[in-house]
Specification:
The complex is a heterodimer of chains A (598) and B (289). Chain A is mostly beta strands and 598 residues long. Chain A contains 11 helices and 40 strands. The termini of chain A are far apart. In chain B, strand 2 and strand 3 form a beta hairpin. The chains are: A mainly beta (598), B mainly alpha (289).
């Protein structure tokens, strides 16, 4: 060293400044985060404009999810393999104008439940009497999720049930019962599926559906032919289940067209959702994959073209477990939220918030991940999430549930998990090589996240102070105005845990409007219809979804928060048929029924 | 990982220096290691998308080079050969995993600065990128992790990297370090398996990952931060593997980095202490003679 002691001391000071800069950055970032102090309802209402209260038991819902019990050769890692199946979907199955709730259980012999809304704040399970409860019989696999769509346009939502096993389609008989039509439709004998959605990909007025396989469809998890059924890589796996696209031919007939339509992935799909991301009038298909990159299938109305890498969403492989769309900046464009895994000290994938880049037109859709900038990046072992305006202030908020396996609080499986995750395919794909869990937790007992959108590109986590205080292993999140009060309630399905219903109370200062859409030349469920609300010089777009988040489906009705003094300029509905309808006379604070003009 | 290029460079001193194109392609060329690691990066990323992003890796490389240029000029009075700083930067770009940008910058700068600050007997004692990464994962675990997964699952690229790496390391006469470490790791993997009851495959699994390929070919072989005698190089690296095993038994995820962080400098200090004693005894012997 040619410099004297002073220069070296200066260098040392700068050096240690850099060394300890992570601590300074951590301190600054923690100041930006919301306090974890729990507030009483009045304080939360005053501070955030809403509060949540868990009311499942009071509402007559005491549903507890039961996890699968698989082949005994998986016993040593059973909690992590049998870690999915808790799902929730919102449906008004009897067309009474009140949201009902369908939930799945995943143990052989366990019953699913359909909670009919009693209009008095309570629900009653009617799945048994209607024939859609006992669907987890031995030998048929167990439920992993359910989505509802009116495939025959008779006005009643039909039930597509996916399983690690035989998928099922139940026709809704005018809300009075269900008829199993699985065989007529020609559903495959066995699919280990964790995601399915309804959408009309070709705009012919008939709902089609997509099913995404997770484990290979040749694997019977109860009778393993081989223990080599795990992913062959933690981030590059391509030995998952195949994908199915069933095109609705009408008359209750479907044709499987995935290959023909350009969908042939064998990635481990966990969460699919569809929305018109480019303004083409066709719903594009976004698939978040575990153990790999996400896929974005751009829809030209007849075929899909995978553009994950080209659009930026399919470059860095992570552990995708959620797909939800939200116009978070009120600019008429959807951002996409994909949840991943973050565990302090081991693995920091960070969740992705894919925001369309400015200046991109429909032909050159590009996304950039702004999760960190928006403050919605770190969510633990994240699963289902949904956007919705929980305080009716006019901006979409984000609810995220998380937590993988909660067993012994003081023992973690993470070290062993990280060890095997780095192994070569020959090691990682064989379940017998995985160290035993022995009652240890893997990202268990995690605090949930409820990020309030300030409208200017920042989300603040208010989960604890707003009442979302559970620490179950959350899987599916669905939002619905369960009691027709103009507030979005949150329903959370937990693995091996209770179904939670967070009833939402919103400050009356903030107003709202809802739209109940019904297609005529479009599919009657209006899935894919897009509503753009113009008010107070801003716009927000939402669409009717046939499934989003993780193993979830929100209410079909579209809910907008409007803030304090709304001046609605117009409402534009673009139907899947291509028709556009402009509404100028709508009622604030009410549910507006909108029928597609013939 | 920096310093490997110095080995290549240093290896020329004993032989006939090639000239022109021959010099560029000769294994003595100081740029072989940078070219090797760049090839791993480019092929890995084009094939499997292994990087967090080009931007973050670019930031790590640029920060590393700029820091080296500035510090060498100011504190050494000369413009540096940038090969080792480039390797440090690219190593940080590959090994650090973070959704944030700042860890790449901080890790690269800290790695290079450590060479100029943490010195004993005018020699830096920590492998730069090992120091930077260890500091970062220790102080910012909520934001930073290290590469811990495969780059795809193809056996052939892995074999190519192992063979190429072994050949290069052998040519610079440091295969004894890599070989000893690998043997010890496998041996200790079976010991861990016996102690914990975990399948031996899960204990060996990390060695099959690219993080270890970088660790054993570039980091533990750094000539600037390893002891001089071949025998002691083997002993020290065996102690690194032993320390790693102990840390692994305590379920420390970043065991290899911490093991090298602890053992590497300690070995150099012991070596320095022995050298001092030797020098003193020679002086005493001369004085008494």
């Amino acid at each position: 060293m040619k410099r004297g002691p002073i220069a070296r001391i200066v260098l040392a000071i700068i050096f240690f400044g850099f060394v300890f800069s992570p601590l300074i950055i951590k301190r600054v970032e923690s100041r930006r985060a919301e306090s974890r102090v729990r507030l009483d309802a009045a304080s939360a209402l005053a501070r955030h404009g809403f509060y949540l209260r868990e009311v499942a038991h009071a509402a007559g819902v005491d549903f507890v999810h039961q996890a699968p019990v698989l082949d005994a050769r998986l016993n040593h890692i059973m909690p992590q393999v049998a870690s999915m199946g808790a799902s929730v979907s919102i449906v008004d199955f009897d067309r009474d104008g009140w949201a009902d709730i369908y939930v799945t259980s995943s143990k052989e012999g366990a019953k699913n439940a359909l909670y009919r809304n009693q209009h008095d704040g309570t629900f009653k399970d009617v799945a048994g009497e209607l024939g859609i409860a006992d669907v987890n019989q031995a030998g048929t696999g167990v439920s992993m999720g359910a989505v509802w769509g009116d495939y025959d346009n008779d006005g009643y939502e039909d039930l597509l049930l996916i399983k690690w096993g035989k998928p099922e389609l139940f026709h809704n008989d005018a809300g009075k019962g269900f008829t199993r039509v699985t065989e007529q439709v020609g559903l495959p004998a066995w699919v280990n599926a964790n995601t399915a959605i309804w959408f009309d990909y070709d705009g012919d007025g008939l709902l089609d559906f997509f099913i995404g396989g997770y484990y290979n469809e040749n694997v019977d998890l109860w009778h393993l032919a081989s223990t080599k059924m795990m992913p062959d890589s933690f981030e590059y796996a391509k030995n998952g289940g195949r994908k199915y696209l069933f095109h609705n031919l009408g008359g209750g007939r479907f044709e499987e067209v995935s290959e023909k339509a350009g969908i042939s992935s064998r990635r481990w799909a966990l969460a699919a959702a569809a929305a018109d991301l480019r303004g083409t009038g066709h719903q594009d298909l976004f698939v978040s994959n575990d153990y790999g990159v996400s896929e974005l299938y751009l829809n030209d109305g007849k075929k899909f073209h995978e553009a994950g890498e080209a659009t930026g969403v399919g470059f860095a492989p992570k552990s995708g477990m959620n797909t939800s769309f939200g116009d978070i900046l009120n600019q008429g464009k959807y951002a996409v939220y994909v949840s991943n895994i973050s565990e302090e000290g081991v693995l920091i994938q960070g969740n992705n918030l894919w925001v369309p880049k400015d200046g991109t037109n429909s032909g050159e859709l590009k996304f950039e991940n702004l999760a960190r900038e928006f403050g919605v990046e770190i969510g633990g072992w994240s699963f289902g999430a949904q956007f919705g305006d929980l305080n009716n202030d006019g901006t979409l908020d984000l609810y995220l549930t998380n937590g993988y396996v909660s067993l012994d609080r003081n023992k973690s499986y993470w070290y062993d998990f990280s060890k095997i995750a780095g192994g070569h395919a020959l090691i990682i794909e064989d379940a017998k090589n995985w160290p035993a869990m022995e009652g240890r937790s893997l990202s268990g007992y995690q605090a949930k996240h409820l990020w309030l959108n300030d409208g200017s590109g920042k989300f603040i986590d208010v989960a604890q102070s707003a009442g979302a205080t559970d620490t179950y292993d959350g899987r599916a999140v669905a939002m619905a105005d369960l009691w027709n009060t103009g507030a979005l309630d949150v329903v959370v399905a937990n693995e091996r845990g209770p179904l939670l219903i967070y009833k939402n109370t919103v400050t009356p200062e903030n107003t709202w409007i809802e739209f109940a859409l019904e297609g005529t030349s479009s599919n009657r469920s209006a899935i894919g219809a897009q509503v753009t609300l113009y008010w107070n010089g801003q716009e927000q777009v939402q669409s009717v979804s046939g499934g989003s988040g993780f193993a979830a489906q929100n209410q079909r009705r579209i809910h907008f928060g409007l803030g304090k003094t709304p001046q609605i300029e117009k409402v534009v509905v673009r139907w899947p048929s291509g028709k556009t309808q402009t509404l100028t006379s709508v009622k604030i604070g009410e549910i507006n029924a909108v029928k597609e003009p013939s | 990982m920096s310093g490997q290029a110095v080995t290549m460079n240093g290896a020329t001193s004993g032989g006939t220096a090639p000239v022109g194109v021959g010099k560029f392609f000769s294994l003595e060329n100081k740029w072989i290691a940078p070219i090797f690691i760049t090839t791993i990066l480019v092929v890995g990323n084009l094939s499997f998308g292994m990087l967090e992003s080009y931007r973050k890796t670019g930031i790590a490389i640029v920060a590393s080079l700029v820091t080296e240029l500035i510090l060498s000029k100011i504190y050494m009075g000369k413009w540096p050969i940038l090969a080792s700083a480039y390797i440090s930067g690219i190593s940080v770009g590959i090994l650090v995993r973070s959704p944030a940008v700042w860890p790449y910058l901080v890790c690269a700068v800290v790695s290079i600065m450590s060479k100029y600050v943490l010195r004993v007997n005018n020699r830096h004692i920590w492998n730069p990128s090992n120091f930077g990464i260890s500091v970062l994962v220790f102080l910012a675990p909520e934001t930073v992790a290290t590469l811990s997964i495969q780059w795809g699952n193809y056996l052939l690229p892995m074999i190519v990297i192992w063979v190429l790496g072994s050949v290069i390391i052998a040519r610079v006469r440091r295969f004894n370090i890599t070989g000893t470490y690998v043997m010890c790791f496998i041996l200790f993997a079976f010991v861990r398996s016996w102690i914990t009851g975990s399948p031996w495959q899960s204990e060996v699994a990390p060695l099959t990952g690219p993080m270890y390929q970088l660790f054993i070919f570039f980091m533990i072989t750094d000539p600037k931060t390893t002891v001089k005698s071949k025998k002691w190089q083997c002993i020290v690296v065996a102690i690194v593997a032993l320390a790693e095993m102990i840390l692994r038994l305590d379920q420390v995820v970043y065991a290899p980095f911490y093991a090298l962080f602890l053992v590497g400098p300690a070995a150099l200090l012991v070596e320095y202490w022995f050298e001092l004693r030797l020098r003193k005894s020679v002086l005493v012997a001369r004085a008494t003679a």
